[in-house]
Structures are given as structure tokens and as C-alpha cells.
Amino acid sequence: MSLPRTATTFAPPVMEARRWLDGVRFTEERPLINVSQAAPVAPPPEALRRRIAELAMDLPEAHLYGPVLGLPELRAEVAAQFSTAYGGAIAPGQVAITSGCNQAFATAMMTLAGEGDEVILPTPWYFNHKMWLDMQGLRAVPLATGAGLLPDPGAAEALITPRSRAIVLVTPNNPGGVEYPAATVAGFAALARRHGLLLVIDETYRDFDSRDGAPHDLFADPDWADHLIQLYSFSKAYRLTGHRVGAMIASQSRLAQAERFLDTVTICPNQLGQHAALWGMRHLGDWLAGERREILDRRATISDQLPKIAARGWELMGVGAYFAYLRHPFDIASDDLARRLVREAHVLTLPGTMFMPEGSRDGGRQMRIAFANVDRAGIAALFDRLAAFAP
Description:
The protein is α/β, with parallel strands linked by helices. It is 40% helix and 15% strand. The chain has two domains: 5-43 and 287-388, Aspartate Aminotransferase, domain 1, CATH 3.90.1150; 46-283, Aspartate Aminotransferase, domain 2, CATH 3.40.640.10. It is globular and about 55 Å long. The model has no long low-confidence stretch (mean pLDDT 95).
């Protein structure tokens, strides 16, 4: 008897990590420092919450089914703003709104691959990407990254087989934090075009990229839709995590296929969340710029605090957006280390084993720090605890 699809992959890592807190007593003097999850823990800004409340009371259609591919005004706003930001041409009909970016990824995979096909994922990978591929019956082909956690198009080309359907990039990267150079992204786009593959580029954290201007020029290619799918999340930009609003930008023919999947799964995205995202895009530009500055300041704090643990043998492999990715110096697997850090240092983080193929020795030496919800003082305390930890 064959296994159900949900039994073919691993348990949700964030939920597993939270179970490590069971039975551990934290104190006022030594509270838990939680750097396990990247999602914002604060609610949306007050102005946006008030707008959501107004919509809930005054817009009856916000409580009803809407178009499967999303609110037309939001699709048009994404197309207009992203066309300007990337110096390209994106039409509203090339934008679909989804119930979060994870659903955008699942939708993209459903439109481009079938049972037994292959998708190339750079490692360390975003675990939910791997989980979905497992549950769809697709083979995730790991692409080891080089110095600075950067993937190489040449190394990816060596992995392409007749079953290859797509290459996935996440930039700024989760879990590594690394911002992929425009030349690297362009190299992967050329590779995908040359081999008839899709380049799926997840830019969930684009609003917190440290670089000014467009991070790549893929949309400047008039034929971009032939080989490119972009994914985006409104959750991080406007703290709308509970409303589940994401986006998928692709060809209109691909979105026609996506509509079949989305109609079956959710019928339509969250209506209140879509209106909130639209209002945020039109009114919260300055506020979002301030959020970006705060994240960049916390990123700088990571670098400032690094000497405390570098002296103990820790190594910073990548940093950016919401994440710092570290190599630890201990003769202990990172998953065991993560459990001990909860009990002995009152720090909850995720081990590299959750972002790498099963049995990976590299994953056993790596840790992810999600610092977006920890201020300067909290980051300093985190590094003090890591520096003092001795297994």
C-alpha cells in the first residue's frame, strides 16, 4: 500500500522546534530569546488596522467570494509598482494573488511539473519548498552553494536531466540571508532559457534588500514570461501574516492553469487581506522604508556583535534580510545543539539539518538566526549567551 503524500515529507520545522520549549522553565532574569521564525510578531501599523476595521464594517463584498486570481485593483497595483521597480513591463493579467507566498510556490510547481519530475534547489534550502516538492511527488535536486552561500549556474547546469523542469532561487535568501548579485540571477535566467526550464525566483524579502534600486533586470526582457516566475509575500512588508496574501507573477497562459489549482484549494484569496495589501501599497511607502532601515540596522548589529562568538570559533556564512546563517564550532550535530541551547542558554533557533538534505554533514554544523523580531539589545544578549555556551 502506498503512503499518503503527507507522509512522504518531514514534520513542519518551526512547529517541531516549538515543542522543544515544553518543560523548560524560563525566568525574568533569563527569558527566552526566540530567533527561530522570520514572521513578524507585531500587528500591522495602526493606520492599516483601522483601515481593515473600516473595510470589515463598510465593504460587504470583503466577506464574500472574490475572483480566483485575486482583486483586480491589487493585481494592477502590483503590476504597476513592480514594472517601475524592475524597469520592465508586467501586465495586470500576469499577476495572481495567492493565499500567502507558500501557496504561490505550490501553485507554480503545480503548473510546471508532474510526477517524478525534478526541481533544482540551492542548499541550504527553504524547508517548505522541499516539503511541497515531496508532497507533489517531485524530486528536489540539491545544488550545493559555494563561498558566501552563492549558487553557481555552471554547477546547476551539470545537474540538469531530461526530467528537470525548474530552478528555484530565493533572494534575499531564506535561510542564508544572502542577496544574490544581479549577474548571478541573470546567469540562472540564461541557463533556464537555454534549457527550456522555468526560473522560479522567490523574492519574499525584497523589501528588505540592502541594495538601492532593482536587484535584477529580468523583467526588462520583453520575453521574460517564457522562462520566469516571480513569487512575493505581503506578509513581511505590511505584517499581514495572519491574512495570508502573496503573489505569483507569470505568463497569462500559466496563470490560466494556476486558476484551476487555486479554485480547487481556496477558491479566492482572503478578501480583507487583499484590500489591506492594496491600501498598504498605496499609503505605507514611507512606513515600509522605515521598517527596512530598522532591519538593516539589526543586520549591522549582527556584524558588530560577531567578534564575541568568532573568538569561540563560530563563523558567519551569510547575513541579510531577516537572517544570519552560522557555522558552529562544536563536535555535536546542530539539531542536538539547538535543543541544548533551549535548555541551557534559553535560546530557540533552527539547526542547519532543517535546511539541508537528510544526513548532510554540512547541515550538522550550521544554524539559522532569524533576527527580525529581536532589537539591538536582544541581539547583544543573544551573542553573549552563544559566546558563553560550552557543550
